[in-house]
Amino acid sequence: MRDWEDEARRHPTLLIRKTLRSGQNVRYYGNVVILGDVNPGAEIRAGGDIIVMGWLRGMAHAGADGNDQAMVAAFRLNPTQIRIAHFIGRSPDAEDATLPAFPEFAEVRDGQLIIEQWQHSMLGNIR
Fold it and tell me: Could you give the CA distance from residue 103 to residue 10 in angstroms, rounded to a whole number?
């Protein structure tokens, strides 16, 4: 069995092919991938990673079971609130905000929630 097959069994992923509207909530024990946007007022809570192939403008809580190795990534990362395990961040105030021009990701590094531009080199060596 390949490493990625074992990883897939231990960390299942929920794929959602639609935009989440205000008031909609997703809770899942594994990873969550959204093929669409997450609008303000929508919430995602995942035990693993959260990946949004669109705008993330709602609330995202990755590693909700305490997994501080989880991450959040989106084509446009502008959440009302972002959480990884017990770490919490939010978008800058409207007058200070600049819309991201590139996909971004959030992770916990050295005890802080960090948001950075996605770089293709982050993918590492895929087997």
Answer: 27
Task: Tell me how many domains the chain contains.
Answer: 1
CA distance linking residue 67 with residue 84, whole number of Å: 7
Q: Which amino acid is at 37?
A: D
Domain membership flag for residue 126: no
pLDDT in tens, 52-107: 999 999 999 999 999 999 999 999 999 999 999 999 987 665 555 566 678 999 99
| Residue 122 falls inside a structural domain | no
Q: Is residue 105 part of a domain?
A: yes
Q: Report pTM.
A: 0.84
Count Cα neighbours of 111 within 13 Å in the Cβ-side half-sphere. Answer: 0
Instruction: Provide the residue range defining the domain that includes 92.
Output: 3-117
Least Cα distance to 56 among 34, 26, 71 occurs for 34
Length of the chain: 127
